[in-house]
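Re: duplicated header lines in exported structure tokens

Our pipeline writes sequence and tokens for each protein into one text file. With two proteins the header for the second block appears twice in some exports. Here is an export where it did not happen, for reference. First protein block:
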Amino acid sequence: MATFLYKLGRLAFRRRHFVALIWVALLTLAGVGAASAPAAGNTSFSIPGTEAQKAFDLLEQRFPGMSADGATARVVFKAPKGEKMTDAVNKATVEKTVKELRSGSEVASVADPYTGHAVSGNGTIAYASVKYEVSGMELEDSSKDALKHAAQDARDAGLTVEIGGDALSAAPETGSSEIIGIAVAAVVLVITFGSLLAAGFPLLTAIIGVGIGVSAITALASALDLGSTTSTLASMIGLAVGIDYALFIVSRYRAELAEGREREDAAGRAVGTAGSAVVFAGLTVVIALVGLSVVNIPMLTKMGVAAAGTVAVAVLIALTMIPALLGYAGRRIRPAGQKSRLLGGGRTPKKPGRPNMGTRWASFVVRRPVTVLLLGVLGLGAAAIPAASLELGLPDDGSQPVSTTQRRAYDLLSEGFGPGFNGPLMIVVDAKDSAHPKAVFSEVGHEIKGLKDVVTVTPATPNKAGDTATITVVPDSKPSSTTTEDLVHAIRDKGADIARETDSKVLVTGSTAMNIDVSQKLNDALLPYLALVVGLAFLLLIVVFRSVLVPLKAALGFLLSVMAALGAVVAVFQWGWLSGLMNVEETGPVMSMMPIFMVGVVFGLAMDYEVFLVTRMREAYVHGEKPSQAVVTGFRHGARVVTAAAVIMIAVFSGFIGSSESMVKMIGFGLAIAVFFDAFLVRMAIVPAVLALLGKRAWWLPKWLDRALPNVDVEGEGLRAHADPEEEKELVRA
């Protein structure tokens, strides 16, 4: 591995014009594809294998006109104080608004509140349901403007009017904080390298890599049904790892220059050593992201595969374009310890013999490993405590900020029709094999009326064939409550009994039932996913480190950091701690896919720092140093760069906390805090403490396994064959 990458680095350094041309051509091709591709619609959300999805599929077959693809809007009206919606003036205003809503070119239907029994019991609140022919993301701006204009006309007439539903949905915006994250990364790179030019290379290559990845996703979005969140995730992870991977190779290049190597040879050795770590670190991230497919949720699978593709591009760019750029820079990139003239530095390196911060910290940990280990574990354990109160759910209009019209419409509907009205359950009765379908429909409705927490059960609405019917059930509790979840299970249990007696099928669907099924599916998949991802990465790390205990320690450390990160997410987004600082306007259940998503992404990123830091220790140990000294050596060479990489990744992820999309905001915060815990508490404190306690046992590997494993030579031992004889003697003496 190291020898191949060494040759690749030297080739890219020499053929820099050709390498740069290839990447520019790929970026241009991806950009043209994105610009010419049809606009992507709102991604379909399907959960194969769940009862809610089976009911949805059955509706598509038996009720062809009942398409769930179209956007919906609920225009909610509230009468002024002391008046009712049935008053003549208010009724005329609503009827005028309904007529105005029907005039839209993309409107499929509008339900009048007075003919559709959509007026509250006290007469103060009513709503009109609008159905569109296209999805919310495909809806023309003119249709959205017409919807808003109709609502404003009713407001001008004296009514309170709010709009719920997905008709006003828009692509998430990350805000200016994403740019601030990149700016912080630039400052950290300048401080790390002491050179504007060297700092610019990781940023440039990361932006090119993300540009290629996101453009490719945009180009394929319509064909592959990719949502807007897919490209946001890809850019988030691709930008963070792209900067980090390039940072490690540029840092190693400067270290090789400081040892007196020629620039082409230094570029080759940087790619051969640090590049090997980049390859395996990238592989762990790819494994974790692609592994999300085992959950069998198409949207999650697409997000993971798209982000994994962007990570693969980041690895390839770091291995080829970075050495090419180093060739262009020439002597303007100075050896480690020398600052650029652009920053006012001279050519004199730092005084020899003065230990850096990484050396001093590692020496402290090696002297007091038990104390550091206990403090690190207890600190992470304390942060993980809120995770015991984790509540899962999927966002709806009730989780929107109170400043939005969707949330105000949600609250008005709850006020007028009860909290369960915002999450009605749809019962689908398939009586095709029954001798008396109408009797089955009636029995199902009667049985459901007798259950607890049921407010309304509508009469069955059969299809044209008369063999399938839908029944709408309005619970007494809000959609995200455990009481509503219990009702869903009770209806399904009752439906199973009826099905056995009448040769029919009773299925529960709707957004509330779908959310419950998603949460259950994700919970069931978490342990198999952990076993798959951690198991594959464990085997990969055994090959990299040629040790059993080091990969085991890495996996256990990851579990600590991810549990602590989940605890922090619960504290902020569920409990409301520091919610004002994070601009979280509405607390509530944590997004259902957050735990499994964090497990996948954080594991991949955690292994990045494990590989980068511990390979330096392994390299020192292989070259003859004692275990404790190898820990200090690894920190002397790697701590500054790993710290910079972690700060950069935290800054990039934190930039997404400013997103208007609650899902993106939560992911950005969760990944940022997870990187903080993993980099600074696990990898910088617990890892050296454990290695110091284990000593030589840390690098133990059974002889039979040692013979069976391939030698990937991450430490670059094979590169000695490429050293000049005189240089080799000098290195041995050193």
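Second protein block, exported in the same file:
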Amino acid sequence: MTEGLRRIRRALLSVSDKTGLVEFARELRGFDVELISTGGTAKALRGAGIEVRDVSDVTGFPEMMDGRIKTLHPRIHGGLLALRDNAEHVAALDEHGIEPIDMVVINLYPFKETLTRQGVTLEETIEQIDIGGPAMIRSAAKNFRDVAVVVSPTSYPEITDLMQHFNGSLPLKVREELACNAFLETSIYDEAIAEYLHDRQARIFVEEVYDLASNSNATSENDSSGLPQIIHLRLTRIGHLRYGENPHQQAAIYYSGDEGGVTQAELLSGKEMSFNNYIDADAAWQLVCDFDETACAIIKHMNPAGVGTGASVEEAYRRALATDPVSAFGGIVAFNQKVDEAAARAMTEIFTEVVIAPDYDEMALEVLRAKKNLRVLRSGEPHRAEGLEYKTITGGMLVQTRDTHRLSPADLKVVTERIPTDEETRALLFAWTVCKHTKSNAIVYARDGQTIGVGAGQMSRVDSVKLGASRAQLEVKGSVLASDAFFPFRDGIDEAARHGITAIIQPGGSVRDQEVIDAANEQNLAMVFTGIRHFKH
């Protein structure tokens, strides 16, 4: 660790995020480090009574062009790039009066944060493209043999601790690690700018060339604004997993930077999560987040074993459990509301692998923690996943926008002679939401607020109809049925009617829609079309 120690004698500080700046600068001065700074950073340091030298005093040039030009100067970059053990470089420093700079402390203009502001203009965004900052970071990082580059306030405490330990110096290993982080930071920054400008050009292309705002004949094939031409994925490993889907597969979990969701859920009790635990917990969590009312979902192998809503979390759980108590054994349970003691005690009546909820009251946690093998996750407030969804294939990746569509009663088109009752409509909308989160071909039998039977992942739709009814532990007669895609033949309708259902919700769109509608009318069933398909593979 002591290899290649370099004393920090002179540091240049220029930061947008001034978190911890004053404290860090004081620590540096305590090591007798001379501080050089720019604009607002220098003002903040002087305001705190810290001695600092202006960059303009070093370069001999004032800041100009609204701050666009201040550090782009040989006396700055020469001081960063010069190799201290290279006689020619040292001679050049002496000849031109350039002082070596041993540390650069920089964080860049808030480009990404600017994009989130309401009504931000192109001109405002362009001014948040940092030029001097990345240039200094790259110069310092390239010369990590002699220079330390610090790009995040979170690094300040560690740097001061190390300098304390090494009497004002930093080892080569530390400087190299800092350089790695610095290049990563500039690459992320440049990617954000490139993506912004590309997306802007794509929007202009659509608006000007195809004039989508007024040309109703334009097709989605011409719309390049929905998905970017280039996608940069930046994932940070946050943990190793014992293994993947199977023991012979290695696995880890990575964080994408998006807030909310299972990745950031807090493990309050139980063993570490497995690969399969994460997949099923995410499926369960996304399902309950699609309900506004109190809801519970029990998931096995990415499919719902049962879903229920209720006046309380306990009622929602018991209704979900009643769908298929056998399959619920060893399942993943999700709630979209805070779990109380009554619901916790109900859950402990059978073996459960994972429970995930926004929060738990104190007594609920006490009950759940008594089950040593139960993993208890606190997710924070329900949050419907948005943005893009990725699926890897050999040699590449498929990308799509997430299925965030939500159905309302006004969206339903009644296509049969009989109109569904209000109770049937509520049950149909409930079944439709569950069906959206069930593997295709998906069939869901339900009553208002409770699943009755689920047929998932079958090669033919009529087989899913048969499976859902055959697996039902509750009475199917009087329930409604949801199908994630259209019925290609009337056999599915006839099979469902044989089990006593009263109403059907499906997308419609088959060439045999009329044949299917006729079958429903013959059985006195109400049927509604949604015009929306919810395949889930």
